[in-house]
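During the no-cost extension, the postdoctoral fellow (Dr. R.K.) reprocessed legacy sequence entries with the updated structure-token encoder. One reprocessed record is reproduced below for audit purposes.
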Amino acid sequence: MTSDLKPFFEPAGVAIIGASSNPRKLSYGILRNLVNSPFPGAIYPVNPGAAEILGKPSYPDITAVPNPLDLAVIVMPAHTIADTLEACGKRGVKAVIVISGGFKEIGAEGEQLEARCLEIIRRYGMRMIGPNCVGLVNLHTGLNVTFIYGLPAVGGIGFMAQSGAVLGGVVDQLMGKGVGFSHFISMGNETDVTETDLLEYLAQDPNTRVIATYVEQIKDGRRFLETARRVSRIKPIVLLKGGRSSAGARAVSSHTGSLAGSYSAYQAAFRQAGVIEVESLSALFEVAQAFDYQPLPAANRAVIVTNAGGPAALASDALSANGLLLENLEQSTRLTLRAALNPSAQVSNPVDILGGAEPADYALCINTLMQDSSVDIVLPLLVPQALVSSVGVAQAIVDASTSRNKTVLACILGDASVAEARLLLHQNRIPMYTQPESLGVVLKAMLDYKTWLAQPAEPASALPGIDQAAAAHVLRAAAGKQSLGEVETRPLLAAYGIPLVPGGFAATAAEVGALAERIGYPVVLKIVSPQLLHKSDSGGIQLNLADGAAVGEAFDAMMAHIRSARPDAVLEGVMVERMAPKGQEIIIGMRRDPGFGPLMMFGLGGIYVELFKDVSFRVAPLSAADARQMISETRAGSLLTGFRGQPHADLDAVVEVLLRLSRLALDHPEVDEIEVNPLLVYPRAQGALALDGRVILNNHATID
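Re-encoded structure tokens follow.
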């Protein structure tokens, strides 16, 4: 529900609890900003020691504050916050912002205090932003309950950040540059209101055209994924993730677990939800501004208009690296430009109109290029010259691109000398960048979003032949174990319809021989031991055994070798499996992420999986489109689609295995990790076979 967040952003009255007349106090800064803002509502300082502050009557406590009152901003010592929230609840306050720190960020005592605060606000039906935050700004209503100095322009970017310092730095950096915002929101510890709640609110806000956010951790990953997937259909979400390194990844024993760091789940969820992820704070607002100001490109064909060859070359490289095309212009366009420009000008792509180009030259070029059907994106680029007015060029860009039938991004190198030109362009909704490389990053983001919007929402795939009860039986029988080897994993996979190579378990030489005869030669022997996780490393695999004599000899030799090399290993027996025809080896796996749930993996399989790390991830549940995108993002996917004359593999079979393993992971939370390695994939319409599998169980889920 977004309605319960409205009191934060459109309150009729605001109380500042802990307001001070001391200019050195944060609460003074908040009250000063609010009093000096165009906010039309009532403002109530609350301080028992003051009669008035900044010209506003002061009240001894929240119970004495008159109506209207919707929002309370609390700036008090941490140990007083719980009692203050209790008083706000009794007064009927709808929303509270707790600026104060000293909660879970300081340790266990602060965490307990935070939990108490949450209990209080839920008991009274209040909503809370914070604690440990900077506050928020609604630029369209004039509400400013932060202690930040200054504000940027009013516009369409709704910005929220888990870091108050990031938010404050952005404000200072963008003031006076014409980049327009609808909201600034500091989320703090997110005890109650989270980034997901704010996504829902900003999605419905009529003044917000694009949502920009800085996050470090998402509390409820699955809810975020579901919400962001829905919101991205309404307006773009541009996101910068802090803490992306794999340093915090768990030490786990499976390939999937070792390759799936904590950031992998975030990346996967962002891709599935249509969230545009960027890699820097500058890119966050460069991309957001383009979404706010310009239409999405019709396609990826761009043209550069420049007065300098070097920056044009840098821009061309950036565009090419990000999938943009610089194609030849139409003949009529070239003829028009040749007739009007300096004879030395280059009328190819880039269009180089030379260092002395005047505003009229830029206007002519842009007007002409806007009519060229081979052009989707027009990119005016200017290196300021002593005799050429950058403001004049900016005005020419504005005048020539008013039709808005193409995407226009400007690049003017420099800083202080181009400030007026930048402001003029931004006020006329044309993004201006000071580095040529930015053009490639921004346009790729716009095209990625356009591609995502074009993908239809796909219903869940029907998966017949799943025996959930049989799988549950296998897992109940394994209760108390930390992991399941192939013996126990095979029936689990079979219950979910994942194709397996024929085979079974045998403990003695006689059982091995009998089983080999039953399934047919040639066969493979694979050691079964809880201590030998990777069988090939210990000599625990014997291949292509053609008859009973070879099987008996291989069994005896393998057992003797391993007993000598690994006397600590418990040798339970062997798996006897029919030798499968050669196919492409891939790995499919799952690791349960604490925030997002089952994280599915696809990649190059066999013994080299961790060497090449050719893997991709998505969060379950998967759609068939998700599965196909996973495959396409890897080199293994290239091998499956006819690389260097190889036959096209049965991708449908791979997709189905991914979907079935995804379903298994969702149905059985006690499975922490699972992998099939290798899955042998055969040519088109010939299917796939799982050769080996392993499961790691968690100790927290309850097995029904």
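The chain has four domains: 3-208, 297-452, 502-578, 584-697. The longest strand covers residues 671-681. The remaining legacy entries will be reprocessed before the final report is submitted.
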